[in-house]
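Quick entry, no commentary yet.
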Amino acid sequence: MPLDLGPNLIPEINKLHSTGRWVWLFDVNVGAGSVYYLANHDSNISWNSTTYYAAPVDAPALTDAQGTQIPTIELTVYQIDQGITDRLRDGELQGQTVTMRLVHTDHLSDTTYHLERTAEILTAAVHKDRVVFTLG
């Protein structure tokens, strides 16, 4: 026999379904007080009064269980801005920081995030189609 959910319960169940997704936001400090804001998303994202520009990013999964200290990881950014690659050639990014925040697109009006990690740029390598940061 099918379960009768009733007319009041269906809208509540629909609220549980979300069309949004989890997105990593990256604050890449490039020195001299400049920061590049990147979003691992297919379009730009505005969060906490800052526009994060869409960029394909490969990053390992970070979890709450790891605590605030992260292991050495590689962060690969594709279609990188020429301004970043110019700084990489000058070696200016080594020792700078990258802050990574996990937010949900359904809650971009909130200034809170689900997870935040900050790591130092240990190395950065420029390739034809990408830049690979080693963070630790």
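second:
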Amino acid sequence: MLIARLAPLALFVALAGCETRFLPASDASGAVLLSEPAQEGDVRAAIIRSLKAERFETESEDAGLIQARYRKGDRSIQIAVEYTGAQYRIRYLASEGFEQKEEGGEIMIEQSFHKQITKLKKHIEREMLKPAPVAPSQ
């Protein structure tokens, strides 16, 4: 009898856990201040290494800006990483295969996008803590 009463509750909890959670795409784009200022080239190198490690493909580069895309199966994320010697910022550009909607003029994208960007930010942070490579002496 108790099982019959709890079955609808268990079904509700299971279905609620499967609902896609949406967050504003802009939430992932706040500027990240570096713990210590660095040469812009060192910041760029740390970002490039992190993009590669997190399986992003660099699509284009300009001074202070890298555009990259992450692909996995039929899903992709396109981002722009703006950087200086003091900070960097990751901006959402586009995606395919991720659920999204517009709410109040803002793009809302499923939470897994934010998880991928958080992993990338943590990797950049770790890379920035590594000592800069020493140039070979001539």
